[in-house]
Amino acid sequence: MQALFDEFPVILEAFWLTIRLTLASGLLALVLGTILAGMRVSPLPVLRGIGTAYVNIVRNTPLTLVIVFCGLGLGLVLDVSFSTSLSTNYLWLSIIGLSAYTAAFVCEAIRAGINTVPLGQAEAARAIGLTFFQNLRLIVLPQALRAVIAPLGSVLIALIKNTTIAAAIGVAEASLTMKTLFESHGDAVVPIFFGFALGFLILTLPTGLLFTWLSKRLAVVR
Amino acid sequence: MTENGDTTPLVVLADVNKHFGNLHVLRDINLTISRGEVLVVIGPSGGGKSTLCRAINRLETIDGGTITFDGQPLAAEGKTLAKLRSEVGMVFQSFNLFAHKTILENVTLGPIKVRGIARAEAERRGMELLERVGIGAQASKYPAQLSGGQQQRVAIARALAMDPKMILFDEPTSALDPEMVQEVLDVMIGLAQEGMTMMVVTHEMGFARRAANRVVFMAEGQIVEENTPEEFFTNARTDRAKDFLSKILTH
Question: Domain ABC transmembrane type-1, which positions (chain A) (predicted)?
Answer without folding.
Answer: 15-211
